[in-house]
Design a protein that fits this description.
The chain is of the alpha+beta class. It has one domain. A four-stranded antiparallel β-sheet has the order 1-2-3-4. Strands 5-6-7 form a three-stranded antiparallel β-sheet. A hairpin with a 2-residue loop joins strand 1 and strand 2. Helix 1 packs across helix 4 and helix 2 packs antiparallel against helix 3.
Length: 175
């Protein structure tokens, strides 16, 4: 490739497009802690009390047509930032996906849920994914669905994750 393109050796990968990569002897740790901390600060949630989970287990978002309207551009900015964070945080993928459904007409109840996710991120900003060297190269997948879990249209949300050995390599959720 060096004969075709101008290249230079800059050393070991440590930071790329907001992803922090820490390479150790037998493991690689990928996180977005710097991005997460900056995002939480940007939206003024850096001094808020931390939450232990990204969403309450009993709470379901709806269209909330009688709710109070909120700034659509702020809401979309928050959702966009959180969606980018899901590149290294599978733990928030489902909840961010649910909140993203209401970008057209966000209400106060939706903003409260997004702020809860930000409070969770504030307390777990150093979390990421650890990839370790393993002799086990078995591909294993897990899937689940909430079966008509949307209160608005009774559609299901399915999700899944795939492991190669002990390493999480892919995750998704889809309504």
């Amino acid at each position: 490739m060096q004969s075709e393109f101008e290249m230079s050796l800059v050393g070991e990968l440590t930071y790329f497009l907001g992803l922090q990569v820490k390479q150790m002897e037998d493991t690689i740790f990928v996180s977005q802690s710097k991005y997460a901390k900056n995002m939480v600060k940007k939206f003024g949630m850096d001094t808020a009390a931390h939450k232990r989970t990204p969403a309450a287990t009993h709470f379901k978002l709806t269209k909330d047509e009688k709710g109070i309207d909120v700034d659509q551009s702020l809401y979309r900015s928050m959702i966009g930032s959180l969606l980018y964070l899901t590149a290294s945080r599978p733990d928030i993928t489902f909840d961010v996906g649910v909140c993203a459904r209401y970008q057209a007409k966000p209400k106060m109840s939706h903003l409260v849920q997004v702020k809860r996710i930000l409070k969770y991120i504030n307390g777990t900003s150093d979390d990421g994914i650890l990839y370790s060297q393993t002799k086990n190269s078995t591909l294993v997948g897990y899937c689940d669905a909430d079966w008509a879990g949307s209160a608005d249209d009774r559609k299901s949300t399915s999700g899944g994750c795939f492991f190669l050995g002990d390493n999480l390599i892919s995750w998704f959720n889809k309504k």
